[in-house]
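Ticket #4471: structure export looks truncated?
Reporter: QA, pipeline team
Priority: medium

Steps to reproduce: submit the single chain below to the structure queue and open the exported record.
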Amino acid sequence: MASLRFRGKFKIQDSSGNLIVYKRNDVVYYEGNSYVATGNTSGFTPRHTHKHARWKKLDVPDSNIDGGHFTLEE
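Actual output as written to the record:
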């Protein structure tokens, strides 16, 4: 099993203007939903439909993750 890493609110760029690279199993909030990266990704919002976006919406009952420990079966 792989552990998920909570990264907070989704941002496309850091404070220096560089694209943020999210790694597989990183979890972010975006527009009221939680998403997990299915592979390394940058430059795409979690709702983007491009095949390289590599985001999957998490289906959790209260639509958020509070930073607790979560796992993904591989």
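Status: closed, not a bug. The export was complete when the record was re-opened. Leaving a note from the reviewer for reference: The chain has a mean pLDDT of 83.
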